[in-house]
Write a structure and sequence with these properties.
The protein is α+β, with helices and mostly antiparallel strands and 80 residues long. The protein has one helix and three strands; from the N terminus they run αβββ. It has one helix at residues 12-21; strands at residues 30-36, 39-44, 51-55. The chain has a three-stranded antiparallel sheet, with no helix packed on it. The radius of gyration is 14 Å and the shape is globular. It starts with 11 loop residues before the first helix and ends in a 25-residue tail after the last strand.
């Protein structure tokens, strides 16, 4: 089933408020909605109309295996 993207447009004031509410490094909860070769798209729980792209280069290393890297879609978090 293909989902058409919903484009949400923010004003500069809305972007500024979003950045103030969620400064760089803030952890948020969400649900993986799509996996791509370059990263995963996550729907943010507190902002359900916002889907964020998490690029592969930003994924943290596994504590149990710091050399582990994400090379294949099977390595990504599961959708849902």
């Amino acid at each position: 089933m293909r989902r058409d993207p919903i484009v949400v447009t923010f004003t500069q004031d809305e972007w500024d408020a979003l950045i103030a509410a969620y400064p760089l490094g803030t952890s948020v909860a969400g649900r993986v909605v799509s996996c791509q070769l370059f990263g995963v798209f996550v729907q943010i729980e507190e902002l359900p109309h916002v889907t964020a792209l998490l690029e592969v280069i930003h994924f943290a290393a596994l504590v149990s295996d710091p050399r582990h890297s994400i090379n294949y879609p099977a390595d990504y978090p599961q959708v849902g």
